[in-house]
Write a structure and sequence with these properties.
Keywords: Coiled coil, Cytoplasm, Cytoskeleton, Membrane, Transmembrane, Transmembrane helix. GO terms for molecular function: FFAT motif binding. The chain is an alpha+beta fold.
């Protein structure tokens, strides 16, 4: 059995899903990449839903199939809801004397469901030294945020390029199908012409014998 699937979310501007639509054959599998563009805007109410329904072998347009009226029929479309959870941040077990150290914890980016905390231990400083250190840390944080923004921009460009390639691929598939139909039609016409020529040859042979 062949199915068409699509993945939807209630926060479409927060997440990038690649691919968001497609087809799967029996016993087939596909890797789906879901990217959160900004963890600061994460909310526990964010949800995903996977929709799937039967697809014909000649269905090739991954988006057009979901525009069909049948997809509104819940008896034909299977829906699976996915809930999201925010990863818990790990905390250091080390205890440091207040008289010796002030500890500043800066969370690093999480990957593959794991999160870690990088701890910066600083000796007690004067107010001026603390202010200088805070400014340095703010500068580091701003640099990291700029890097993240650039990464998001590059990722969005890559996503747009992938979508463009998907559109070109769908267009090429349709053109290929049309070409195959034309070839089959030409072959049928050639077959009919050959049959007519064979009949004419037979008639001519009969006339020669007479």
């Amino acid at each position: 059995m062949r199915i068409a699937f699509r993945i939807r979310t209630n926060a479409p501007t927060q997440y990038i899903v690649m691919p968001a639509t497609g087809f799967l054959s029996a016993n087939g599998s596909i890797n789906i990449l879901i990217t959160n563009l900004n963890m600061r805007k994460y909310r526990r109410r964010h949800r995903f839903i996977i929709q799937a329904m039967k697809a014909k072998e000649n269905d090739t347009d991954r988006r057009k199939i979901w525009n069909d009226a049948n997809m509104e029929n819940l008896d034909l479309v299977q829906c699976i809801r996915i809930f999201t959870l925010k990863a818990n941040r790990q905390r250091s077990d080390k205890s440091i004397s207040k008289e010796e150290f002030d500890e500043l914890a800066i969370p690093s980016s999480s990957e593959a469901g794991e999160s870690e905390t990088t701890s910066l231990q600083v000796q007690l400083m004067t107010d001026e030294e603390k202010s200088t250190k805070i400014n340095e840390l703010n500068k580091q944080i701003n640099n990291k945020l700029d890097e993240k923004r650039k990464e998001c921009e590059n990722l969005l460009e890559a996503v747009n390029e992938v979508k463009k390639l998907e559109t070109d691929l769908d267009r090429a598939t349709i053109q290929c199908n049309d070409l195959n139909k034309k070839i089959i039609l030409d072959e049928d016409q050639q077959k009919i012409i050959k049959e007519k020529l064979a009949k004419m040859d037979a008639i001519l042979d009969t006339m020669k014998i007479k």
